[in-house]
Amino acid sequence: MPINKNFLNVDDKIGAKIKATVLSQALPYIKKFNGKIIVIKLGGNVMADQNLKSSFANDVTWLKSVGINPVVIHGGGPQIENLLTQLGKEAQFVDGLRVTDSETMDIVEMVLAGKVNKELVELINQSGGRAVGLTGQDGCLIRAKKKLLQDREKVDKKTDIGHVGDVEKVDTKILLSLVNEGFIPVIAPIATGIDGETYNINADVVAGKLAEVLQAEKLVLITNTPGVLDAQGKLITGLTAKEIDNLIENNSISGGMLPKIKSALQAAKSGVESVHIIDGRVSNCLLLEVLTDQGVGTMIKSN
Q1: Angle at 292 between CA 70 and CA 67, to 5 degrees
Q2: Pairing of strands 93-94, 69-74
């Protein structure tokens, strides 16, 4: 029997049979991942849809209830964009990263930490989970460093894009304490550098680094595309490092997908068992990816 992608929302007798089929398929995965950490990055585009946000919150709560430990990192690009537009400020991007001056950084912090993070925490709590909202600043979770972009034409030149950071150091004590006490950490990708400045870090980069340091069983990047697409727009279900280099070279991978794919590959090379880029527009996509035989996106392999 094929899997109904909305199986958790079906309550009739046929739906019950589908649920039973999926749950029987899920049992080996529940046993395999019991007690393991799965790092999940939720893209801001998905968070703009209330139904998809609720579906995600249910998925995360369900995983925790069967003994799997989700750690959530979220973006918020569209929400930031909306507020910038309202304030008459034009956004600029370089290699998929937002150019962030001091004024923009204040807006980013307000949207990510003050709005998006709290909304997601509340949705998970309403679903029966126990979520705790954090930024990289809390408990010295992440120490940031300023990110300078390498000029593609001049080797000795680097581009300063403002309050955009990279991950310099991770201290997982607060995350592990929360996980072990039954909580679901929900993290906004903002951190402070040794210089005392606040930095916006790409959420995919944060997710990849946390998956690596936490020795996560899985890294799942939830986005608003079916996964990685080839030049003809067809889904690529599996990718190696060499294939990724070729896709970047011919511009099949560009823009916002660049930091995503690079973070995924780095996590795979650093020992994360499996890395997936999946379509967040599919209801219950997280459960379908983690607990069924069918993948719903692109799996990244280190070689």
Answers
A1: 35
A2: unpaired
